[in-house]
Amino acid sequence: MPASVMTPEKKEVRALLAADPRWQLVLRITSSSGFVRSPKLVLFLKFVSRMALTDRADQISEQEIGAKVFDRDPNYDSSADSIVRAHAVRLRTKLEDYFLNEGVAEQLHLSIPKGGYVPVFVPSPSAQIADSVARPVPHQEDPASDHAPGTADRNRLLRLSVGALSVLVLGLAASCIHLYRLRAEQSPAGQTAADNPLLDRMFQPDTRTIAVIGDSGLVMYQRAVERQVALSEYLNGNYVRDRHQFGSNTFSIDDLATRRYTSVVDSNTATKLSAIVKPKSAALDIKFARDIRPNDLKDANVILIGAHESNPWVELFAENMDFSFEKEPGGRAFVIVNRAPQPGEQARLVRKDGDHKIYGLFASIAGLNSKGEVLILEGTSQAGTESVADLLFNKDRIRDLIRSAKRPNGQIPHFEMLLESDNTGGSASQVLVKSVHWHQ
In terms of domains, do 80 and 120 share one? Predict the structure, then answer.
């Protein structure tokens, strides 16, 4: 049969897809500016989406994608050829960028959770908060409305707030969907704390360790009002009672900042920590940043996880640290501050929006009142935090990094490491240790 002739079955499938809002979303994504110059990513997303939407999700595999999308032999060795995995990383990042920018008003979201290639479609949460936050302004705005003073800025903030919440909830839903797979395939199953000298120090018998995961609701608030919340404000909660006017719609910050959301990266990192085989009687408590009080951190080992804007508890230890991340007024750039630059280092490094670099801060420092140990896993973004977590769980690289700094008695000095990774392909796997400061 000529290739141009379509069977009745194929016509029916095409008609069903055309009417499916999930497929319509795929078409909008693949025609967006972030995808038009990436034809292989377009083919990749359309292929896995078509398979999932026509009840063939069980046939989606790395081998199948390699053959159908990247023209590999059906029997090629996918363990040696990483083309599918590499493009999957780029695709996940492109999807995230779409929903933060061109697709911020989408009422349906799409992700491809790590650990597999099956797309997940979830509703945007904007409809759930429509009573308290105005819906995102459609892409084709009323031209007349732009002439009102400040309206464009207010609309941008609204889109940012709702869009950020949408992506965060999308991430949480995806995290729940693949939690079992993550535990089975991505967590360091069977790894003992003793395998990793840093984790061995954190998990000691009869010692309580607290892992504090970030507050993504706080991120939404800070981005919406374009200012940072200090730890003191976060503790007393006054910022939550603020009210802000956006056009004709007033919403309470309580509707954004009090929702209990964290990022997939923070959740995954906590899951991996909980999977570490610990010494008998060593305890790990996982706490949400908003549930912590200073007294909780005084007599415990502490692991602070999260992007700069999501975990204000880092501020508690900042005065004893060389490095810190700061957001410039207006939220257009991050500044990496180096208070004790070594030869060849800059005192300030500015990372602007759109730069293809991500940064992470990996620190091992003394706890409050010099009691206990503190690990800080902080990034300029979720990807930056993930780069730090990836390094922490790479026990061989950790041993290599600390070998030369070990003291004669075998103890590891405290340190701060500034990490840098190229984000062009959306991967933080190639992590460069840009600077190391060993503390005496």
Answer: yes
Same domain as 172, residue 27? yes
198 and 345 co-located in one domain:
yes
Q: Give the total number of structural domains in the chain.
A: 2
**Residue 295 · residue 196 · CB < 8 Å:** no
Pair 407, 352: CB distance under 8 Å: no
What lies within 8 Å, CB to CB, of 210 at 6+ separation is 284, 285, 286, 287, 292, 296, 297, 300, 301, 302, 303
For residue 250, pLDDT over 60 is answered with no
- Asked, for residue 65, whether it belongs to a domain, the answer is yes
Query: For residue 37, what are the contacts with CB-CB under 8 A and spacing of at least 6?
Result: none
Give the mean pLDDT of 209-228.
85
| Tens digits of residue pLDDT in 12-25 | 677 778 888 899 99
Residues 6+ apart with CB under 8 A from 405: 412, 413, 415, 438
Tens digit of each residue's pLDDT (9 = 90 or more) over 50-79? 998 988 888 999 999 999 999 999 999 988
Distance CA 363, CA 261 (A): 25
pTM over 0.90: no
- Amino acid 195 reads D
Residue 257 domain flag? no
For residue 170, what are the domain limits? 8-177
pLDDT bracket for residue 255 (50, 70, 90)? low
